[in-house]
Amino acid sequence: MKALLLMLGRRFIKTVVYFDGSTRMLLRTIFVLVTPPFKIVSVVEQIEYIGIKSIMIATFTALFTGLVMALQLAFSLKRFGAESFAANVLAVSLVRELGPVLTGLLVGGRVGAGITAEVGSMNVTEQIDAVRALGADPIRELVGPKVLACAIVLPVLTVFSIVVGILSGMLITMSELGVNPTYYMNQVYNVLEVSDFIGGVGKSAFFGVIIGLVGCYRGFTTVGGTVGVGRATTESVVTISLSILVADFFLTKLFILLFQA
Predict the structure, then answer these.
(1) Those residues with Cβ within 8 angstroms of residue 91's Cβ, 6 or more apart along the chain or in another chain
(2) Would you say residue 17 has pLDDT above 90?
(3) pTM of this prediction exceeds 0.85
């Protein structure tokens, strides 16, 4: 019992310290992003690295998510004679939840691990200390561009994933249910509202901030040489995934309250 309590106490203290440090980094990052000098070139480079190189994983995720969802809906709704609503359910699910969350999880795993490995390697080799010694701000030079790029790229990738998922779902409904493509797209158009897109894309922007912030903070707190970098990378991916799932609940509740008000 004593060992269990000690372990829980250490976990609690570690969580509080983690939350405090990441919150301080977030506030500092917001400050450097709204004050000159602005690192436009660095942001563009990060957008290319995070966005362009993540298109393939986002495409495959959305493609097979749309195929599987449409296939499941085609046979599930057919039992109730409601197969004509497959497009409606698929579109709402992709726009509100599956598109933002799955894109955030898959891209977050790839990007978060890369950011943590990069920043963590710089930290254990004292390159970040060298940046400070030269009079530069590591938050402005490293963290700001990465967090801003993630916040820009994730909504774009989410929209792309939603489009791919809806189109792939159309292929299944055409082949399995014989649904006319025009009818399918009309159903999608009629069921979706502007609030659905705002909620889905808005959540993905927050997910982008989480990915960039957690990746950078874990990199800045990396210790233990190359072994520590590997450990930090693993912890970063786990933390990003759990944070996205937890944030998704609260953000969904927030957007529902905003659009119902």
Answers:
(1) 166, 169, 187, 188, 191, 192
(2) no
(3) yes
